[in-house]
Design goal:
Order of helices and strands: EEHEEHEHEHHEEHEEHEHH
Oligomer: single chain
CATH class of the largest domain: Alpha Beta
Largest sheet: 7 strands, mixed
Number of strands: 11
Number of domains: 2
Distance between the termini: 17 Å
CATH topology of the largest domain: Formiminotransferase-cyclodeaminase, Chain B, domain 1
CATH superfamily of the largest domain: Formiminotransferase, N-terminal subdomain
Number of helices: 9
Shape: globular
Helix content: 25-40%
């Protein structure tokens, strides 16, 4: 059984803390495939793979390190956050069933609530109610709002752990889901309202593309704004479809796309679909990619 986990930690600027998080995650049976630290978002995204039990152990160590080193009372960044260890999804790989990811999510949540006394919310396939399937409905306005509401609003009560936030570490959201592409597009304007309007147009919850979640964010260090997105089903809401929709909307607002980025790792098929679209290739197959063919022969 092989799972991927993509823990998001609320620190993207302090190199020592990011190194400490990586060190705590480097445990036997785990491979760290990627680390993406973003100073503007003040957030780091790690990509780990391993067997379920080893992943749970590694992630528990990483969450404990995050609680020791990150104080949300002094944290600022463009990306919304609920906790020092903010979101921890488990993703089944190859032939691993979703049930394995769900079991790992529940196991980690129980351990975190019991040993670290941290409020735990479950989302996506691990959600305990339909209202908690979507991450944004759990996170809402983040740490500061939850701090005031967790003990008084029944809708904000955690699935596990105390009905009060950790003073500096907040709460944590743990889940099981399918593959996701984190994709950001930058615009040549500092007008946040433009990015927010485009994000509203493209995201599913406002009537946009079915498998797109989007926010408009201010990136002051670059002097521009960003449409920050999660593509939850790239075969049905493809990267090139999203890019063209954002580009067209930007032009309608009198601005332009400057560049884009992928956070973490991406399935090869998603990039090849984009290449096929723009190059107008017909009858193209994954087997025509040299590196993939070599890996296939080696296996």
């Amino acid at each position: 059984m092989l799972l991927e986990s993509v823990p998001n930690f609320s620190e993207g600027r302090n190199a020592e803390t990011i190194a400490a998080l990586r060190s705590s995650l480097e445990t036997p049976g785990i491979s760290i495939l990627d680390v993406h630290a973003d100073a503007d978002h003040n957030r780091s995204v790690f990509t780990l793979v391993g067997d379920p039990a080893a992943l749970v152990d590694a992630l528990f160590a990483g969450i404990r390190t995050a609680l020791d080193r990150i104080d949300l009372r002094r944290h600022e960044g463009a990306h919304p956050r609920l906790g020092a260890a903010d979101v921890v999804p488990f993703v089944p790989l190859l032939d691993t069933p979703m049930e394995e990811a769900l079991r790992a999510a529940r196991s980690l949540g129980e351990r975190v609530s019991r040993e670290l006394n941290l409020p735990v919310y479950f989302y996506e396939e691990a959600a305990t109610s339909p209202e908690r399937t979507n991450l944004e409905r759990i996170r809402r306005k983040g740490f500061e709002e939850l701090r005031d509401a967790i003990g008084s609003d029944p809708d904000r009560a955690p699935d596990l752990g105390p009905a009060e936030i950790h003073p500096s570490g907040g709460a944590i959201v743990i889940g099981a889901r399918g593959p996701l592409i984190a994709y950001n597009i930058y615009l040549n304007t500092s007008n946040l309202a433009v990015a927010q309007a485009i994000a509203k147009m493209v995201r599913h919850s406002s009537g946009g593309l079915r498998y797109v979640k989007a926010l408009g964010l201010d990136i002051p260090e670059r002097g521009c704004v960003q449409v920050s997105m999660n593509l939850t089903h790239f075969q049905r809401s493809a990267i090139h479809t999203v890019f063209e929709m954002v580009r067209s909307a930007a032009e309608a607002h009198g601005v332009a796309v400057t560049d884009s980025e992928i956070v973490g790792l991406v399935p090869a098929a998603a990039l090849l679909d984009t290449a096929k679209h723009y190059l107008r290739m017909h009858d193209f197959a994954l087997g025509q990619v040299l590196e993939l063919r070599l890996l296939e022969k080696e296996s």
